[in-house]
Amino acid sequence: MKTIHNSNVIYSFKPNMTPIETVESGEVFKVMTNDCFFQQITSEDMVLNSIDHSTLNPATGPIFISGAEPGDLLRVKILSINIADHGISMIAPGEGVLAEKAKNSVVKIIPIKDRCCHINGLDIPINPMIGVIGVAPGDGEWGTDSPWKHGGNMDTKDICEGTTIYFPVRQVGGLLALGDLHAIMGDGEICFTGLEVQGEVILMIEIIKHKAVTWPILETSYATMVIASGETIDDAIKAATDQAVEHLASGLEISWEEAYMLASLTVDIRISQVVDPKKTVRAVIPKLILNTDKLIRSIKGF
Ligand code: CA
Ligand code: CA
After folding, report:
1. Which listed ligand is nearest to 152 at the C-alpha?
2. Residues 65 and 16 occupy one common structural domain
3. Interval between CA 40 and ligand 2 midpoint (Å)
4. How far away, in angstroms, is 213 Cα from ligand 2 center?
5. Residue 38 falls inside a structural domain
6. Among 155, 186, 208, residue at a domain's last position
7. How far apart are the C-alpha atoms of 294 and 302, rounded to whole Å?
8. Which residues face 64 on adjacent strands?
9. Do 35 and 8 belong to one domain?
10. 131 plus 228 within the same structural domain
11. Residue 186: in which H helix or E strand, if any?
12. Whole-model pTM over 0.85
């Protein structure tokens, strides 16, 4: 199996990126990832200001997918996520939802064993997930700390082993990169860190030709989720809802008005994260209402 080493990293997603590896459609490959601090936190005496900020949030890549062209959809299957035996949780002054109350820097190095993390005397089952995963955007440059239409720092806890994420291809080869694994994170990521870990992800990518969507789509065992971001959480909710209603209308061949009503009865809006430069939510469409294959088939091309 091809292994892509975590010494190959980017710090922003932009249209012109030089790929460090090429994979074929259907090929199974492994990507090694750094933790979001680039493994600089080695003791609980360290704080955010004692490390080099220029290397925060590295994403391994970019990976060129043979045959992917603008206007296609990438189907990225997350086959497995393996993580290190410890992770890092951190708070810092002025960070997170309670920024004004967070006056101290605190770092915890938390052991992970037997699929549990051990913290405050509790053994908590982990749910390893990918914080940053995305492709080259159509235009603009997006730091790996930001989510947007290309994916990026979506910090969505459902992006985990066994799920499939779909990205709109906007540059030749797609140019995928990923990093920032979390052993566990609650919706919101409220203090500004998950349980930050180093790890490796096994992926398989397929290309679906001529399907145009605005925002990434995630398929889990029970739902299809539109992951959208905005300046505010309200903007993110509006964007996710807009695309979800479009999918319901085209997938079920019903009017926009019917889809809007049906969405109100069946679609959940869940918060992904509220602490990054843009906020992220997901609109959760149950497969019982519209299965993912049908939803993807009904997406039109440009
Ligand atoms: Ca993140
Ligand atoms: Ca993180």
Report:
1. 1
2. yes
3. 14
4. 26
5. yes
6. 208
7. 18
8. 22, 174
9. yes
10. no
11. none
12. yes
Selection from 135, 155, 124, 119 nearest residue 36 by Cα: 155
Residue that terminates a domain, selected from 170, 187, 208: 208
The CA 267 to ligand 1 mean position distance, Å, reads 25
Same domain for 172 and 258, yes or no, is no
Residue 215 C-beta-side C-alpha neighbours within 13 Å:
28
Taking the CA of 143 as reference, the closest ligand is 1
Q: How far apart are CA 279 and CA 238, in angstroms?
A: 12
Total domains in the fold of the chain: 2
| pLDDT interval class at 241 (50, 70, 90) | very high
CATH classification at residue 198: 2.60.120.580
Cα maximum dimension of the chain: 59
| pLDDT at residue 198 tops 90 | yes
Identify the domain containing residue 230 by its residue range. Answer: 217-298
H-state helical runs in the chain: 233-252, 256-266, 292-297
Considering the domain architecture, whether residues 49 and 153 belong to the same structural domain is answered as yes
User: At 50, is the pLDDT very low, low, confident or very high (cuts 50, 70, 90)?
Assistant: confident
Residue 19 scores a pLDDT above 80: yes
Q: What is the pLDDT of residues 173-184, one digit of tens each?
A: 999 999 999 999
| Mean of the per-residue pLDDT values of the chain | 97
* pLDDT, tens digit (0-9, with 9 covering 90-100), for 281-295: 999 999 999 999 999
Same domain, 73 and 172: yes
Residues with CB under 5 A from ligand 2 (ion): 36, 131, 180, 194
Shared domain check, 191 and 60: yes
**Whose atoms come closest to the Cα of 156: which ligand?**
1
Rounded to 10 degrees, the C-alpha dihedral 81/40/144/196 comes to: 40
Residue 291 Cα, ligand 2 centroid: separation in angstroms? 31
Q: Name the percent of the chain lying above pLDDT 90.
A: 97
Q: How far is the CA of 171 from the centre of ligand 1 (A)?
A: 24
What separation in Å is there between the alpha carbon of 12 and the centre of ligand 2?
15
